[in-house]
Amino acid sequence: MTRAHHPAWLVDLGLIPYAHSLELQNRVVTARKAGAVPDVLLLCQHPHVITQGRNGRREHLLGSERVLEQMGVEFFETRRGGDVTYHGPGQLVAYPIFDLSGHRRDLVWFVRRLEDAMIAASIGLGVPAGALVANWQAKTGVWVHRPDLPPGFPPAKLGAIGVHVSRWVTSHGLAWNVSTDLRYFDLIVPCGIAGCRATSLEQILARAVDFRAAAPSLARRMAAVFGLTLELISAEDLSARLEGPEPERPAEIATSSVRARSRDCGMSHLGGGS
Predict the structure, then answer these.
(1) Catalytic residue among 44, 191, 196, 265
(2) How do the domains of the chain map onto residue ranges?
(3) Dihedral of CA 36/38/39/42: which sign?
(4) Of 53, 101, 147, 261, which sits with the fewest C-beta atoms within 10 Å of its C-beta?
(5) What predicted TM-score, i.e. pTM, was given to this entire model?
């Protein structure tokens, strides 16, 4: 484990609309690039939303525009890496706004550490270590071997990752299924992989998992793998400390229409969907 020496802020946003999280991320990224704030780890849940990364293919969105509207599911095209994924209540989302210049200027290394943190947190909550696989067949994320799946099927996906980096400052991040309603994943081809099934801690453990235990568990593991000293601050304190420069214009588009197009910002990205 890396010895903690990087100061960082930890902010639990609770349940927050995806559009609001995008706006906040852009504000934090701008401040981080300016050196006005330290590394920031945002934790949250989202109302039902499907996001598509820059590598995504529209045919991996199985639900029609009408079905999404009927089910109350928003749709966003984003500038993160990866394909298509779902976010919703019961899923812990982490947005690390880190300056990799203070860690290691290596995006693959960064993604592998996100996988390490999710694996360690999953083990801490009772998932057998031998069941967990990171970067299965070079596919980013955390996977779980399930004996109930037919031969030849990929492992079930417990955690997805899709990140973006600009001037070595990261945004977007990971999604860890704790008590997620997995039926919403039927609206997509998760991460664009045929036969891929999502799973959750509750499904793996066959018992209820206290969501309130998941966030601090993941935060501790993130602190360990990145060498962070975390200071817990409120969302209101974060907003007050971000007063200053105008944020960069976001590339993401919120829409109820599956015909919208995203803007290509020409920045580095990597991941399997988050």
Answers:
(1) 191
(2) 6-271
(3) negative
(4) 147
(5) 0.85
